[in-house]
Design brief:
InterPro entries: Ankyrin_rpt-contain_sf (IPR036770). The chain has 111 residues and is mainly alpha-helical. 51% of the residues lie in helices and 4% in strands. The protein is built from six helices and two strands, in the order E-E-H-H-H-H-H-H. Strand 1 and strand 2 form a beta hairpin. It is globular and about 45 Å long. It starts with a strand and ends in a 5-residue tail after the last helix.
Length: 111
């Protein structure tokens, strides 16, 4: 969420509270759960229509849904996330990493 002077705007604070209500004890949103369960494209489309902002929310480990899908090696899920969420996706990851780090770590081919 965008902060101004270290503080959330009123609008973003409300949005953050709404997102928190949608998470489980590990800060996983419904979108994280769809990734872990390798749900079909229809589920990703439904979640995009419900709240595209879920694609930017990291879990307790700092992993947004795209980073999670790539790190688990779920290629079809990754494709669905990119297709349905596009510009809404976060490419960040834990500990200063990003999705390219996750892809490199998952790669079976080492040059």
């Amino acid at each position: 969420m965008a902060r101004s002077g270290g503080r959330l705007s009123a609008e973003n604070a409300v949005k953050e509270r709404q997102i928190i209500k949608k998470t489980n004890g590990n800060w996983e949103t419904e979108l994280h759960r769809a990734v872990r369960q390798q749900r079909d494209a229809g589920e990703f489309e439904r979640l995009k229509q419900e709240d595209g902002g879920l694609a930017r929310v990291p879990d307790i480990h700092g992993m947004p849904p795209l980073y999670l899908a790539i790190s688990l090696g779920y290629r079809d899920v990754t494709d669905n996330l990119i297709s349905f969420f596009g510009d809404d996706l976060s490419y960040d990851g834990p500990d200063g990493q990003n999705v390219l780090h996750a892809a490199a770590l998952r790669s079976k081919v080492i040059y």
